[in-house]
Specification:
The chain is built from 11 helices and no strands. By secondary structure, it is mainly alpha-helical.
Length: 272
């Protein structure tokens, strides 16, 4: 007999959500604190959001972080999708085991090792560290996560739609963009968001591969927290949480609309 959702289940669920979201909620609440002491409530105020606009180093770090996240997530999405197609559609090919290991290696390697290895590589090829080295490093890190997400969708995809399109004369490239890509688009978007979030959050790999003029927000926050937590850090963290949350809501609505269209395709108007 199936057991209902009991008190212990509700308690465990509440504690789990509290553990995850109460710290974020406290950060948001104290970003509106009028006191300079981040742990002492001094009344409601938006002074730290106004002061944030005058904090040029913090704003510059935030802009650099967003740019790196957008570029690296876009590159990781393209490369990860292609890697997933190779693993699912190409079957057994020479070097598949090695290719699979190279794709998934960043997921299991400690970030310290990945950051150090990339640093040594950039030094060996005499590439100046800065915006592009961090972008390449984040692409290397996040591409494997995109591959996992897209590969899981491709494995369960009904290939009869693609075969029907090719039977009707569509070449493979057109079949991919007209049939395959729209059907796996939720997974592709999910992979992009995951890559974007991981890039925003990364500290270790970025600290190894950063250079002049390419200080990311996590590095800036870490260096300031060592000297004391500023209320402006709460403010900019709240803004980032709001941006990511809004993006997730918008993407979820778009994906829901796409899923509904795929389940109930619009009927073509009958010709007279």
């Amino acid at each position: 007999m199936r057991r209902g959702f009991g008190f212990l289940d509700a308690t465990a669920l509440a504690l789990g959500f509290a553990f995850l979201y109460v710290p974020i909620l406290l950060l948001v609440v104290y970003s509106f604190n009028d006191s300079r002491l981040v742990t002492v409530w001094g009344g409601f105020s938006t002074r730290w959001y106004r002061a944030l606009l005058d904090n040029e180093p913090l704003m510059e770090a935030a802009w650099v972080t967003v740019r790196i996240a957008l570029v690296s997530a876009s590159a990781a999405t393209i490369l990860g999708t292609l890697a997933a197609l190779a693993l699912v559609r190409w079957g057994r090919f020479a070097g598949r085991t090695l290719f699979t290991g190279l794709v998934y290696a960043p997921m299991v390697m400690p970030e310290v090792m990945t950051g150090l290895a990339l640093l040594l590589f950039f030094v060996a090829i005499d590439l100046d560290r800065g915006f592009w080295t961090i972008t390449l490093a984040h692409t290397t890190l996040t591409m494997c996560f995109v591959t996992v997400v897209v590969q899981a969708r491709l494995v369960t995809l009904d290939r009869s739609y693609e075969e029907a399109a090719m039977d009707l004369g569509a070449p493979p490239i057109r079949t991919f963009f007209s049939v395959t890509l729209p059907m796996i688009s939720p997974a592709v978007v999910a992979g992009f968001l995951l890559a974007f979030t991981l890039s925003l959050d990364d500290l270790v790999i970025a600290s190894f591969n950063t250079g002049p003029g390419a200080t990311t927000l996590p590095i800036r926050i870490y260096s300031q927290v060592r000297l004391g937590v500023s209320p402006e850090i709460n403010a900019i963290s709240t803004i980032l949480v709001g941006i990511v949350s809004a993006a997730l809501v918008v993407v979820a609505l778009i994906m829901k609309r796409i899923a509904l269209k795929q389940e109930n395709p619009a009927q073509q108007p009958a010709s007279n």
